[in-house]
Design goal:
This protein is α+β, with helices and mostly antiparallel strands. Helices cover about 45% and strands about 10% of the residues. Keywords: Membrane, Transmembrane, Transmembrane helix.
Length: about 425
């Protein structure tokens, strides 16, 4: 009888612990989503009035799975990055491509000719209106300044409690990510530089920084760092903090009830120029997430359809938008390293998302074709990473296995583009 009572007590105790963990996870998820209701001009907060996507935590939990091995060239230091933002007078506004007249042209109906050329490519006149995003020159300038500025304040405001919103001495801000393990910061950082290779400029600039006890950059917030229990000499990432961003809902052509985004003129001509420009950015995003195997965006929504039929009607994970409609790809920690490690779990969903798109930016496909032809994606990514990031040796690089996975995905993407071209080039 005593044995039965003891076993029953043990079961009840475990159930209680599970309940506490569930409630804590839900609260953390709600807090993170609350932080993403970004301020808009005139005050208040942006909120679609839709229920919170409680399934998002399922995929974030997978990020906490520790690697069976750590494929590093250098050290073992940790960090992650996310650009969750709220408006501040000290923030730096996102830079737009073109003047007010050009921006006005975005809002009107399509009057400048076909939105598609050569069968599967967005037209050149749309490229002329395409947002510059975070240009190479702008990102380089920000990185140089961010490495020298002193951090004078750390406070909550970038998603998880372990992350912090940093204020520099000049009043500008950055999101500091202190990661669960090195997979996240390595994936986040290498994903950023892969975007540079592809000419995709939707990612905010990023640097790495080391929490040395004698670092002048962190000296003013040393007490705060100790309180956060961040490890000395840990490598964290800092990403430019961008004001006045809102959530993004998956566009209708990419939802489950649609046949996908194809170069069908009858459908595309019904779109406004602004809608076409957003779809162009989505096609870059889908290519990008396929190459990096990032499951924590559209792919996770596709998976969630099994129990949540309305998930596509809510904001997409880790995707934000400026008031002018330019997309900002944030929190890319699931890409490359971690995404490749759990690829078997998600590959069928990655393939489904990729197969739903058959219209692309020509400039992006040209970069993909070059990486396919030269078969040197590892070499070029490593060179760019080491040339741009002083702490690259501390953080390490892709393993040989994962570098091979990246090249294989480039080759598969190239074949998909050829398939689309063969199917639609005669239209």
């Amino acid at each position: 009888m005593r044995a039965v009572s003891a076993n029953l007590f043990a079961v009840l105790f475990m159930c209680a612990l599970a309940s506490v963990f569930y409630v804590w996870s839900a609260l953390e998820n709600r807090l993170e989503r609350h932080k993403r209701r970004f301020s808009v001009p005139g005050g208040g907060s942006f909120h679609q009035g839709l229920p919170a996507d409680l399934s998002a935590k399922t995929f974030r939990a997978l990020l906490a799975v520790r690697a069976a091995q750590r494929p590093h060239l250098g050290g073992r230091l940790e960090a992650r990055n996310l650009t969750d933002q709220t408006v501040s007078a000290g923030s730096r506004n996102y830079h737009m491509n073109g003047d007010n007249k050009r921006s006005a042209r975005r809002e009107g109906p399509v009057k400048l000719g076909s939105p598609v050329e050569e069968g599967i490519f967005w037209s050149e006149w749309l490229e002329d209106l395409f947002p510059e995003g975070f240009t190479e020159e702008y990102a380089r300038d920000w990185r140089e300044r961010a490495r020298t500025y002193r951090i004078v304040k750390l406070e909550p405001g970038c998603g998880r409690i372990s992350n912090q919103l940093a204020t520099f001495a000049d009043g500008s801000k950055a999101c500091v990510r202190y990661g669960i393990n090195a997979d996240q910061v390595q994936g986040e950082t290498l994903t950023y530089y892969l975007a540079s290779l592809l000419g995709i400029t939707n990612l905010p600039p990023l640097i790495l920084s080391q929490l040395n006890s004698d670092s002048e950059q962190w000296a003013a917030v040393r007490t705060r760092i100790d309180g956060l229990q961040w490890s000395d000499r840990a490598v964290v990432s800092l990403t430019e903090w961008v004001s006045n961003l809102t959530g993004v809902v998956t566009p209708a052509p990419l939802r489950q009830e649609s046949s996908g985004l194809h170069p069908v003129l009858a459908e595309l001509r019904n779109k406004t120029t602004a809608e076409l420009l957003e779809l162009m950015q989505w096609t870059d995003l889908i290519i990008f997430d396929y190459l990096t195997a990032n499951f924590d965006r559209l792919v996770s929504n596709l998976f969630s359809l099994q129990w949540d039929s309305r998930v596509m009607e809510r904001d997409t994970n880790n995707l934000l938008k400026t008031p002018q409609g330019d997309l900002v790809f944030i929190d890319n920690e699931a890409g490359l390293v971690h995404g490749f490690r759990v690829l078997n779990m998600w590959e069928k969903y990655h393939n489904t998302v990729l197969s739903s798109v058959c219209v692309f930016r020509k400039r992006t496909t040209q970069r993909v074709a070059e990486l396919h032809r030269r078969r040197d994606s590892r070499k070029r990514l490593l060179e760019l990473y080491r040339d741009s990031e002083p702490l690259s040796l501390e953080l390490g690089f892709l393993s040989e296995e994962h570098a091979g996975v990246l090249q294989d995905r480039i080759d598969r993407l190239y074949k998909h583009i050829l398939h689309c071209k063969g199917k639609y080039s005669q239209l």
